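Need a sequence for this fold. Nothing fancy.
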């Protein structure tokens, strides 16, 4: 048995899912529940709520501060690490502001994914891989006795969720992190307008900080009794809704990763200049659309053809 602390610095929901094989493999290898120290903005307590591989999740703030506040944050994080009293610490990224408290901590065995040969240097051998692939590579390098490559989230709270559902449910996500991966909203409006002639339920999601989407959506969509807007829902409610749905459509983003992890029919649109479809490591049955290789019209037709096969 080995008591292990895993520090997850990543900000995204998808990043939490990419960590699942590492966390499960550690738990099964050492037969000891993990302590997770996680960036407070990634919603790890909600995403991992029904997982069994951890004992505790402690949230911390992983933000670039002024010099003096950074020093205070380093000291606080070092103290948190020491209080965990673990045998092994794994930091799954290599920002220097997190490497420092790890180096200063009392933990004997320290592993930093992406660390170079010397203090505060970085190993660039995987620099051209996606974040998901990097985590997989570094996990393999641990040579754990038990290896579990499973990206599917536990669904204990959703096992009876579909029993009363009588019509198809569709979740559509309009935005992405920093809006770097956004497909034109006119395309989503086109898809939604075509779908509204059928007997179904559509959930339209976007960040609560982007209320400008309300001005772009036609009134006949916003006022339809088949439409529910979810921008004001909590992440726990969003997770419940995604699990209720049969189909999820959107930009390569956190909701797409959640849907893939819940084995939904997922249609992910991505702009390769900004991002690659990392969520494909979760579920190889996801449909991907490269906006540089396919026109908007072709993508819309492909999505509609796939959906109509099951809803008509």
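Here you go.
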């Amino acid at each position: 048995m080995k008591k292990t602390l895993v520090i997850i610095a990543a900000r995204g929901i998808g990043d939490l899912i990419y960590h699942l094989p590492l966390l499960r493999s550690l738990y099964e290898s050492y037969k000891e529940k993990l302590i997770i120290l996680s960036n407070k903005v990634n919603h790890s307590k909600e995403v991992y709520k029904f997982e069994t591989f951890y004992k505790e999740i402690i949230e911390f703030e992983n933000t670039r501060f002024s010099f003096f506040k950074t020093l205070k944050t380093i000291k606080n994080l070092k103290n948190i690490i020491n209080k965990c009293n673990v045998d092994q610490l794994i930091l799954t990224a290599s920002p220097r502001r997190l490497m420092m408290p790890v180096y200063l901590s009392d933990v004997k065995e320290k592993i930093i994914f992406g660390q170079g040969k010397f203090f505060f240097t970085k190993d660039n051998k995987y620099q051209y891989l996606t974040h998901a692939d990097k985590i997989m590579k570094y996990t393999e390098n641990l040579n754990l006795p038990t290896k579990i490559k499973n990206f599917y989230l536990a669904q204990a709270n959703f096992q009876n969720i579909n029993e009363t559902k009588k019509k198809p449910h569709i979740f559509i996500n309009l935005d992405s992190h920093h809006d770097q991966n956004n497909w034109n909203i006119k395309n989503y409006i086109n898809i939604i307008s075509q779908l509204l002639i059928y007997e179904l339920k559509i959930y339209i999601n976007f960040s609560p900080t982007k209320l400008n989407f309300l001005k772009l959506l036609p009134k006949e969509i916003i006022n339809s009794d088949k439409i529910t807007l979810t921008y004001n829902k909590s992440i726990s409610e969003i997770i419940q809704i995604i699990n209720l749905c049969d189909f999820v459509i959107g930009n390569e983003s956190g909701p797409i990763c959640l849907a893939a992890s819940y084995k939904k029919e997922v249609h992910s649109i991505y702009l390769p200049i900004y991002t690659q479809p990392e969520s494909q490591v979760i579920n190889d049955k996801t449909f991907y659309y490269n906006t540089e290789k396919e026109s908007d019209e072709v993508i819309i037709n492909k999505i509609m053809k796939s959906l109509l096969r099951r809803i008509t």
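For context: The mean pLDDT is 91.
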